[in-house]
């Protein structure tokens, strides 16, 4: 028995320690959260100022002015009512001049409030629009500092970026709304406090303190809902993906052909239901806690109201003071409710801004060693791939033990089966990634130490997954070298080399023809788009020392392919070139052929040498020869 008492005492002590610990945790968390939000807000305000100083000044002045109006008009009301009471009791001692001046003041206050409203709204909307644009510009500028593409392949990073971009038009507006509302409410509450300081200063203080737990806990729960469920849950990401499949043109053909709409809608609904279950639990918890704490907050108000009535019954208050107290109580209660609403709005947008500032501080995974070295031009000894190993950020190994030298002026063809690592090698040469081990040397200089922007100017690449810009034909070509944007001669030359000039000349708007469905432009065939992408690479031939075509002819007909390769052969004369292709008939124009297999370099030689060797290349060649009944 004594043992169980000891045990109970010990348990009680443990419980006490735990309770103290929990309370400490709650307080630490509260302080931490408040600190966090204050930091985010302190960083957001200069952003407003930087975005639009004129609108910000107008808004701040008007908020300050308008928020004092309730307290001023209540004070005037009190004076008017007391003045009128006195005039009714003893007309001889009435001061009608003061009453008239007060009425004029009151009317002026109402006029100020009404006249300022349209100006306030217009400044608010202008500021919100400018803020949205500024945040988007900052996101684009920041994204440009990620010189590699690793971050864009990291789902967490990409997801946050997408969310920032999607919410950039809504959240800054809420941030502004939240900040201004809370500023206005606090000014109103403080002015009420000042107003009541002679009669009952403790009323606003009591009501404010009574509502703080409710505000804080709603705030905290909303943060949980927002953070865990709206933004970051896998269900939300899946929902976005499923709706994208059905609502964007990327998937439109297969969705119709395979009748996939119901399938993706079901997936969407399942993800939503999963998410909704979690949200409704949290919302229920939020409603319960808010109700309990709402009772506390309302009790503060009820107590104050009873006090006013008792004081009035005891004859301790003038008619004006009763009016002042009752009006103040109504205002305070209304503002406290608004405070709760606004703090929720502000809390969401603060989380958005927190995410935005975190994104702005993200360090690129690849850096350029400074001071960077000049890119050797023209190439003397060539490009050395020294024992390259590469695994993608997800751990998938794509290349191993790759060593070879690309001599200046040499054209090499990279061949190999799907997934052999050909495009990966091109990506490493463009320094979209750094090798996991091993190095690439350009005339003896490590690629990592070269000026990366300059290096990329030296390379003209047509990627397998080239881009189709919703711009004009001329702009689509000139993106390869923006200095050629208005140079029709250069545009024509590049399009002749890529076998697209004949098509452009047939169009009534020629090089000014807008392309792409987004802005009602003309649509081209897959092969024509590909030729434009090739023209884009060809237009930078004057500057680029290295030409790379990564599977450039997949969508081309045999005649175009033959002509483009002829053009390529002429174009790359004297330049260093890499040609990645599955069409082995084309690789014969290369000086050397490199055969990749499962990430390894398995054969190197000329077409004839490799056929004689009768290895991997010969197998691939014979398979294609059989298929196309080629004779050689
Ligand atoms: N972004 C990526 N993240 C992870 N793995 C990747 C990525 N890109 C390619 N891989 C993997 O790396 C390997 C090599 O791919 P790569 O695109 O270099 O092959 P390839 O020889 O160009 O193929 P293809 O002839 O089909 O274009 C493949 O196994 C592929 O799955």
Automatic annotation (TrEMBL):
Pfam families hit by this protein: ABC_tran
Keywords: ATP-binding, Cell membrane, Membrane, Nucleotide-binding, Plasmid, Transmembrane, Transmembrane helix, Transport
Record-linked Gene3D superfamilies: ABC transporter type 1, transmembrane domain, P-loop containing nucleotide triphosphate hydrolases
Annotated ranges, domain ABC transmembrane type-1: 58-348
Example of a GO MF term: ATP binding
Its membrane topology: Multi-pass membrane protein
Compartments in which it is found: Cell membrane
Keyword rRNA processing: no
One cellular component term from this protein's GO annotations in UniProt: plasma membrane
Domain ABC transporter: 383-623
Domain of life from the UniProt record: Bacteria
Transmembrane segments: 173-195, 201-219, 287-310
Identification of the protein by name: ABC transporter related protein
Species per Swiss-Prot/TrEMBL record: Gloeothece verrucosa (strain PCC 7822) (Cyanothece sp. (strain PCC 7822))
